[in-house]
């Protein structure tokens, strides 16, 4: 893990490299995904099943593509009671947090003859992409499905590739707890295309949410506009701001928790304490050797990890606002003084006993967060992502006459004569 100071000559280039680690299009990958999306859009199930055999290695038919209720129940029944209780606790806490996000219709009739307002309508059908490759992520199922259910989405669909022909028991239980209505045995870019365009077996959805690999992310980007998506997920990241009060072992463990995701994940600590930074680097090296996913974490830490020595905490805050991290941990003596100045972060974790991993599982707030600097303009997934807004307007005759001439004049300013006439025709001749 690199130890570097903000005053070092190479710091700006190094920091820019970490921020841009997920940037740049892979043209070959994009072309491959474009072809998959185009084929599924044109040939439907035929192409979808061909790609499933090619990439995932199992045959599907229209009759077998859906995971049956009995299959889900049988898989979920395999979960150990202690593990079940953990998932149930997580689901309850995620639900309690997201219940606070429910939006209500409003109508303002305070002006005589005028009623204006807003109505919130849940999306009819949503698709959740559930990764099913090297690891299972029941937490992601809960984070996507629970807010959708709370929002009132009529039908929640999940897609996930199978491993060894069966659905993961923990994922199956999460699907039950999350209230998912239907599950299909498909994954990859072809699954995203099927959800976006619809096939004979797979219904078209209004929005696709959930993380995936580069193929899935590229496919979501390509189908955006035909359907809505949550975000383009890039490599995960954690930024830790700490001072002399931070336990070294805590900081190192939190950095490695992020680094084990994949070799492009980023784990950076900012501190004005140079000695603390050196101790953190040494502790990361020590803990790294004991990790089962050491190879992945080591690549991540070597390429995109750093202990950065800042001039003071103020400079650390400035860098954090430039980085716009997905996860921002704050382990300092007086965190409440700093929090108001942190403008861009997917989630802020305050204090030594609020590790990012707690938020991943059962703290309550959503862990599907903006990455790659997009926290500058976007937000965590939530109930508000599964509703759409409709404006409502009602003017009486007298109210129209109070504003109609001004609106007619405004139309003339824009050169839209028919707009003006549609207003003028409503005045008495």
Give a verbal description of the structure.
With 429 residues, the protein is of the alpha/beta class. Helix content is 45%, strand content 17%. The strands form three sheets. A six-stranded parallel sheet has the order 1-12-11-10-13-14, with helices on both faces. A six-stranded mixed sheet has the order 2-7-6-5-8-9, sandwiched between helices. Strands 3-4-15 form a three-stranded antiparallel sheet. The protein is globular, with a radius of gyration of 25 Å. The model has no long low-confidence stretch (mean pLDDT 96).
What's the layout of helices and strands?
Blueprint: E1 2-5, H1 11-19, H2 27-43, H3 45-56, E2 66-67, H4 69-76, H5 81-99, E3 106-111, E4 114-122, E5 125-129, H6 138-151, E6 155-159, H7 169-178, E7 182-184, H8 188-197, E8 207-209, H9 214-223, E9 228-229, E10 237-242, H10 248-259, E11 266-271, H11 274-288, H12 294-304, E12 305-309, H13 313-323, E13 327-331, H14 335-338, E14 347-350, H15 356-361, E15 387-395, H16 397-413, H17 417-424
Parallel strand pairs: 1-12, 5-6, 5-8, 6-7, 8-9, 10-11, 10-13, 11-12, 13-14
Antiparallel strand pairs: 2-7, 3-4, 4-15
- Assembly category: single chain
Coarse morphology: globular
Can you tell me the number of structural domains? 3
Please report the distance between the alpha carbons of the first and last residues: 80 Å
Q: How is this structure best summarized?
A:
This protein is of the alpha/beta class and 429 residues long.
